[in-house]
Every structure is written in structure tokens, then in C-alpha cells.
Amino acid sequence: xxxxxxxxxVSSPKKALAGTAVAxxxxxxxxxxxxxxxxxxxxxxxxxxxxxxxIPDASQFNAFSKIVEHESGWNxxxxxxxxxxxGLVQALPGSxxxxxxxxxxxxxxxxxxxxxxYMNSRYGSPAGAWSFWQANGWY
Length: 139
Known about the structure:
Blueprint: H1 3-11, H2 13-26, H3 44-54, H4 58-71, H5 108-123, H6 126-136
Helix pairs in contact: 1-2, 3-5, 4-6, 5-6
Keywords: Signal
Protein name: Transglycosylase SLT domain-containing protein
Signal peptide: 1-38
């Protein structure tokens, strides 16, 4: 933004901002307020990437990934119609994931953290959870 545009905003904020917005739109730019916090990615590939960063061990990541693929298809908002299980790891009830963060409904990182904690505490590791899943069809 140029110095002259800043001066116009200071002297007449509404008028200058409107003029700057028109100029930006004409130039093909978009003016938008920056969000306080970036929205959590919700695509399957973004969720997988986050999990891979959080689980650097390849065998543990693969086990975690297989469970999530079967449970939710890497859909952060997957909901089981019959049980109400929710999220990547199909927590039941989904609200249990609030212990990992208030954004549990939409943030894959929060859901992955909760899922890892659950798998580690109940089965010793994601690989242990996958072994159980293979034997039982659930974990």
C-alpha cells in the first residue's frame, strides 16, 4: 500500500478505504481482514500431512493411517449415523476430544492428538491399536 493511500486512510478512513478497495478490486486484488487464527485444514490430504508430522515413525504412522482410513476416510467431520462416533478417529462420544482442544469438531490436529493419546494409553501405540482393529474390526 502506498504512503498516499495510508495518508488518505488517516485523514478520512471511510472514504479512503472505499477508494483503496475499488483500486484494489480494479487491480485484481482482494482486501480482507486477516483472521485471528487461520482456519484448520479439513481436507484428507491436509489431515494426513498433519498426522505425518505428528507421527514421525513410519510404522506407527502407517498403523494410525490405516485405522483412520477405515474409521473415517480422513474426514474430520465424519459421523457414524448409528453410534454418533465422530471425527477422524471416531471418538464416542466425539466430545471426549475436547480434552485435546476446544476446536475438536473441526481441527484435525486436535483430533489426531486425542487419537494418539487414546491409542497409546489403551493399546500402547498406534501399531497396537491396528493389531487390535485387525482382530476385532474396531478399536
